[in-house]
């Protein structure tokens, strides 16, 4: 009931509260707390997780049905879609295991079967989108757990190389759809590198980058803020231009904690409100 | 498809989160926390990490390792823990608001597996209370007490807790800032982690000796310091210290490139080899100091020289410049526009030029950035030279007079492309580097023949005139102008007219005309005392004609008229030197042929005489011998004038030849 009231409040005040660069915002009508959504390549399905990234769920945006495919701790971090919208890749561990002992699994939406993938490393999971037929190269990116540098590996040739040659502790590498660029995080900032390891990182802004646009130019992300550094008191969506090296805030609300946006087609995004765990879609005004 | 990674990390991953950090400066404090909290949390976190790394094989990471440039949002810190596969997340903070003691929070929001978080938090709280001698305030679920969820715990999937060590604004602060107590707090965390993970760390041999090498270098224009060290036996990782503090930790290789350096700044480095044991080994060659290189210096001053020249018969302008320090290449500008870019050497030859056309040049030294330096001596302008050999030409030599001056006028046709000529006279070089097409040779002797030839020159070569040697003889030129003066005077008691004139250039002798008639000819001097037939009171006119083989010229001041004075009363001044008056007599007169001359002064020698007919024509001219006899025997019988000049005095006597 509280969620319904909040939704009504958001819609009613959308013109007076929001001074933002998104429009046509709609809440996806599902119950429960969800976060870290990843929209499938065809825009019809969404990967979701819960508090503490526990569990993996698939949301059908057509029917608003949600299917749980994992209930393990940390299984909702770093999951991914295959390029054919048919397979989901995620990691999970048993309760007594350490996270580095996690194993990668695939889930088939068609057969509804979960299969262990022992050859896939958990650290490159987020950039793995299934084995590509007849491919001469297949690049994945990951954090080297010893050096905390971002590295790349060609799964075909087995060759690996360092992308972030500069000093620093890096995390959360996000590979572009064409596999040529990668957004990485160092401290509070986001940098974009050429995947081939040539050149230096170019800072595009501050926050967490969560999704590339299909044209490989823009990244959508968010930046959470806190009044005292303990709990999140606000969070807004940001659109980063990786060519102009600029960023702009695209949401501006007080009632929502917009987080984890994911591109859904060319101009649409899907994100979650971290206060309620509700899921929203909206259209970006470029 | 085998894509497994081989990474040298242990399964147990601890992420220590020292909480709030500063921005770029300590005044940039987004979370508004005290320096005591920010710096204590980091220091205790670093010491905890050191304890783990010295004794255990666990992997330990930190969300921040510095105080500055270390503000990170709470969601980002949770994401770090997730990305780095944290099994335990320990967030270290200090309390504020008045109070004393330690407290720990855990976040189990919608969590069905709460026991691990609760157990971890309680172990941290119990140990910190005991080891830190703190008041045990509480260990509770965050939202229960705080009415909100702690972000860093909420967004992490690790088993985690947040410990507030003590209060920064009470007497607790004394312990928070104490190095000894910080060690105690770190040891407390370390032991809590070991107990919670139910792990013990085995003793391993100490890392062996090794040496460190530091090398300042450039990577393009970026200054960096490369550190390499020999491998230390038993070491599993290395910590790099810069300026006395840990700069990079957990390095598994034996090299490190420090790119975060400032040009010209000196840094000290040392490396500690580590393994799972507690003993660390520092590089044996001590702390090394090295200064970061300037990899992008501004190009230094340099100067440009432009030389027009020929390459065979092709004209070109050759540019050379002194090397510019730090320059990597040069751009050449011609007539104000970029003409050649990124020239690597210090010369450039501009071959696309037109002879006779002016070109201006300057050069910019460049390095790999936009910084450029222009040559210090400004724009250099040159004219491209003509590089064709001299063409054929002919010469001619003509003797001529320029007024009274004799000269040889040497002229020639112009030789194409020639810049100058050399003139040879009588086979020897006479004048060099002559320009134009004429040379007037005035240094000649009249009547002398001269031969001439010439050579046309330019910077390509030389060519002799095509018509061979030519010859010319210097000619005599007419007498030059002169003036006459006629002064009445006395020659003893005889009236006389004294004629004097300026010398006439080129004249070989003079003729004197009195009253319009030739009176005396071939006078070689420039004076004449006319005593003959001068009658006092009579007026006489005179002009003089200068002569040579080229012609004659009258004195320029025309005919002079003068009246003879009476000299009968003339006397010699007492003051003047007494001069003996010369008197001459001729005898016999009339004569048959031999005419004797008697002079009262026996010292007179070499007396000249002339015999004139009654019309003034010269009949005979000779010098008297010592016998002073004039032979007129060969002359027809008639009356003659005999004129004798003795000591400047003229004596004329009419003689009758029988």
From TrEMBL, chain A:
Q: Which SUPFAM superfamilies match?
A: DPP6 N-terminal domain-like
| Superkingdom in the source lineage | Bacteria
Name the InterPro entries on file.
6-blade_b-propeller_TolB-like
Q: Under what name is this protein listed? A: WD40-like Beta Propeller Repeat
Q: What is the lineage of its organism?
A: Bacteria, Pseudomonadati, Bacteroidota, Flavobacteriia, Flavobacteriales
UniProtKB/TrEMBL annotation, chain B:
Q: Which GO terms describe its cellular component?
A: outer membrane-bounded periplasmic space
Q: Which domain of life is it from?
A: Bacteria
The UniProt keyword set, sorted, is:
Hydrolase, Signal
GO BP annotations listed:
peptidoglycan catabolic process
Gene Ontology MF annotations: N-acetylmuramoyl-L-alanine amidase activity
Q: What EC number(s) are associated with this protein in UniProt?
A: 3.5.1.28
Question: Where does the MurNAc-LAA domain start and stop, copy by copy?
Answer: 78-194
Return the InterPro entries for the record: FN3_dom, FN3_sf, Ig-like_fold, MurNAc-LAA_cat, N-acetylmuramoyl_amidase_3, Secre_tail
This enzyme catalyses: Hydrolyzes the link between N-acetylmuramoyl residues and L-amino acid residues in certain cell-wall glycopeptides
Q: Which CDD domains match?
A: MurNAc-LAA
Q: Which residue intervals define the domain Fibronectin type-III in the entry?
A: 207-279, 299-373, 390-463, 479-553
Query: Where does the record place a coiled coil?
Result: none
- Name recorded for this polypeptide: N-acetylmuramoyl-L-alanine amidase
Q: Which organism is it from?
A: Flavobacterium urocaniciphilum
């Amino acid at each position: 009931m509280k969620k319904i009231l909040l939704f009504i409040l958001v819609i009613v005040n959308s013109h007076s509260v929001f001074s933002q660069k998104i429009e046509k915002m709609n809440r996806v009508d599902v119950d429960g707390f969800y976060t870290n959504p990843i929209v499938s390549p065809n825009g019809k399905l969404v990967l979701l997780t819960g508090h503490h990234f526990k569990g993996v769920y698939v949301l059908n945006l057509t029917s608003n049905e949600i299917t749980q495919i994992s209930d393990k701790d940390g299984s909702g971090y770093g999951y991914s879609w295959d390029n054919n919208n048919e397979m989901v890749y995620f990691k999970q561990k048993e309760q007594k295991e350490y996270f580095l002992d996690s194993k990668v699994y695939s889930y088939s939406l068609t057969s509804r079967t979960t299969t262990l993938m022992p050859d896939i490393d958990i650290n490159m999971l987020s950039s793995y989108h299934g084995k590509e037929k007849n491919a001469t190269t297949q690049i994945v990116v990951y954090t080297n757990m010893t050096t905390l540098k971002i590295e790349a590996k060609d799964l075909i040739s087995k060759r690996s190389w360092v992308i972030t040659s500069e000093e620093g502790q890096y995390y959360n590498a996000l590979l572009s759809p064409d596999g040529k660029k990668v957004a990485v995080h160092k401290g509070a900032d986001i940098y974009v590198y050429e995947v081939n390891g040539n050149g230096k990182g170019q800072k595009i802004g501050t926050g967490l980058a969560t999704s590339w646009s299909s044209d490989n130019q823009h990244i959508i992300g968010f930046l959470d803020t806190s009044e005292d550094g303990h709990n999140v008191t606000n969070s807004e969506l940001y659109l980063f231009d990786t060519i102009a090296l600029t960023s702009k805030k695209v949401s501006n609300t007080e009632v929502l904690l917009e987080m984890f946006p994911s591109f859904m087609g060319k101009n649409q995004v899907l994100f979650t409100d971290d206060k309620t765990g509700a899921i929203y879609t909206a259209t970006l005004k470029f | 498809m085998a894509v497994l990674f081989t990474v040298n990390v242990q399964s147990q991953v601890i992420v220590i989160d020292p909480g709030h950090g500063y921005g770029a400066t300590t005044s940039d404090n987004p979370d508004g926390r005290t320096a005591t909290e920010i710096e204590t949390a980091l220091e205790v976190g670093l010491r905890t990490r050191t304890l783990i790394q010295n004794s255990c094989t666990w992997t330990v990471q930190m969300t921040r390792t510095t105080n500055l440039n270390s503000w990170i949002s709470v969601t980002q810190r949770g994401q770090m823990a997730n990305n780095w596969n944290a099994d335990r997340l320990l967030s270290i903070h200090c309390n504020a608001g008045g109070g004393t003691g330690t407290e720990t929070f855990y976040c189990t929001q919608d969590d069905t597996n709460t026991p691990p978080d609760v157990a971890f938090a309680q172990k941290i709280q119990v140990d910190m209370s005991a080891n830190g001698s703190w008041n045990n305030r509480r260990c509770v679920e965050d939202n229960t007490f705080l009415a909100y969820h702690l972000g860093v715990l909420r967004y992490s999937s690790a088993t985690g807790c947040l410990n507030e060590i003590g209060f920064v604004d009470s007497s607790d602060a004394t312990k928070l800032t104490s190095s000894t107590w910080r060690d105690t707090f770190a040891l407390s965390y370390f032991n809590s982690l070991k107990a919670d993970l139910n792990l013990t760390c085995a003793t391993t041999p100490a890392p062996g000796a090794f040496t460190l090498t530091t090398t300042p270098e450039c990577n393009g224009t970026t200054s960096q310091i490369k550190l390499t060290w020999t491998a230390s036996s038993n070491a599993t990782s290395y910590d790099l210290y810069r300026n006395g503090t840990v700069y990079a930790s957990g390095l598994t290789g034996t090299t490190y490139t420090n790119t975060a350096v400032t040009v010209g700044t000196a840094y000290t480095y040392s490396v500690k080899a580590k393994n799972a044991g507690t003993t660390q080994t520092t590089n044996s060659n001590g702390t090394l100091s090295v200064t970061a290189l300037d990899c992008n210096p501004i190009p230094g001053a340099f100067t440009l020289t432009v030389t027009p020249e020929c390459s065979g018969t092709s004209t070109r302008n050759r540019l050379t410049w002194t090397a510019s320090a730090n320059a990597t290449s040069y751009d050449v500008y011609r007539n104000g526009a970029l003409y050649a870019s990124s020239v690597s050497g210090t010369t450039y030859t501009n071959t696309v030029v037109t002879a006779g056309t002016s070109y201006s040049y300057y050069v910019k030294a460049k390095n790999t950035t936009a910084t450029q330096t222009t040559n210090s001596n400004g724009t250099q302008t040159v004219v491209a030279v003509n590089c064709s050999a001299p063409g054929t030409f002919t010469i001619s030599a003509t003797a001529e007079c320029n007024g009274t001056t004799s000269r040889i006028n040497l002229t020639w046709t112009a030789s194409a492309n020639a810049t100058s000529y050399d003139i040879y006279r009588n086979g020897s070089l006479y004048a060099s580097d002559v320009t134009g097409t004429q040379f007037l040779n005035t240094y000649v002797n009249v009547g002398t023949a001269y031969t001439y030839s010439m050579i046309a020159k330019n910077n390509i070569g030389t060519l002799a005139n095509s018509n061979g040697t030519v010859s010319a003889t210097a000619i005599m030129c007419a007498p030059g102008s002169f003036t006459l003066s006629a002064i009445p005077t006395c020659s003893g008691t005889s009236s006389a007219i004294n004629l004097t004139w300026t010398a006439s250039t080129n004249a070989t002798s003079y003729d004197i005309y009195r009253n319009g008639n030739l009176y005396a000819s071939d006078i070689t001097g420039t004076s004449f005392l006319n005593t003959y037939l001068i009658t006092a009171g009579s007026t006489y006119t005179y002009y003089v004609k200068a002569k040579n083989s080229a012609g004659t010229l009258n004195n320029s001041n025309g005919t002079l008229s003068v009246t003879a004075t009476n000299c009968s009363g003339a006397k010699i001044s007492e003051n003047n030197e007494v001069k003996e008056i010369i008197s001459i007599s001729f005898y016999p007169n009339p004569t048959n042929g031999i005419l004797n001359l008697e002079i009262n002064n026996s010292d007179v020698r070499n007396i000249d005489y002339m015999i004139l007919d009654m019309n003034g024509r010269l009949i005979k001219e000779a010098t008297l011998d010592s016998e002073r006899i004039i032979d007129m025997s060969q002359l027809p019988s008639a009356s003659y004038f005999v004129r004798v000049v003795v000591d400047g005095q003229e004596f004329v006597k009419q003689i009758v030849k029988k």
